[in-house]
Amino acid sequence: MEPGALAVLVEEAGQESLFFAEHTHIPAARTTPYGDGRELPRKYWHTHDLFVTLTAAAVATSRLRIGSGVCLVTQRDPIITAKQVASIDVLSGGRLEFGVGAGWNREEMENHGTDPRTRMALLRERVEAMKQIWTQDEATYHGQHVDFDRIWSWPKPAQRPHPPVLVGGSGPTVHERVLAFGDAWFPNHAPSVIERARDLRARADRPIDLMVMGAPADPRVLEQYEQAGFRRVVHWLPSHPRGPVERALEQWESAIADLHGE
């Protein structure tokens, strides 16, 4: 399904949000392993541009929140990305959720000139620099990886101070990134997520939203996340034509109904 039609389908089903993944490309010669060593699914290199997709989803809907799940900020210029984020947030009426991540495919990021060894520091500086651009009439940022002096950039986001920054990832240092520059933690579904979320909130000195992506259509799993205080649980839909997508969405709706005893 194309993203506008998909967004309409999801909104009409009463869902709260729709997220899109990002990969600019996948290197044909790759040594970075995927997941548990399985073959990388074809859908990873058959994706529209993230921000074009978000725009298509935004203009086709009126209530649905749209988001990046996640934007590979380490592969993007922060000044351009800040303008894209702000523009879509304004044009959607403040409905953008900005999920960010450092990426896992080392060859992919190297093709963008990013050193995998410093990608976490790069991610932090680029997000911090974008926050300056979104919130300051005249923005300046000086870091080790990002450096610019006195720039003007409009529009500013519709949401104040900026769209929510959802930090993806499940690595050992992800909580440091959430606490440093995130509004929420947005990891992939895994058995350890709930326990790690408790630890994150115990360390935080401000409210941190909890959300998870890739959860199965299982009311028992949904109940565990609900009881643990997760505000948003996201389920993958297949990259297929309308029929399989509708069936998958119906299964997801049924799991939610079972959770609530409907």
UniProtKB/TrEMBL annotation:
Source organism of the structure: Terrabacter aeriphilus
SUPFAM superfamilies the UniProt entry points to: Bacterial luciferase-like (SSF51679)
Organism ancestry: Bacteria, Bacillati, Actinomycetota, Actinomycetes, Micrococcales
Pfam families: Bac_luciferase
InterPro entries referenced in this protein's UniProt entry, alphabetically: Lucif-like_OxRdtase_Rv2161c (IPR019921), Luciferase-like_dom (IPR011251), Luciferase-like_sf (IPR036661), SsuD_RutA_monooxygenase (IPR050172)
Matches recorded under Gene3D superfamilies: Luciferase-like domain
Residues in coiled coil: none
Name of protein: LLM class F420-dependent oxidoreductase
Keywords, alphabetical: Flavoprotein, FMN, Monooxygenase, Oxidoreductase
Keyword Endoplasmic reticulum: no
Domain Luciferase-like: 5-214
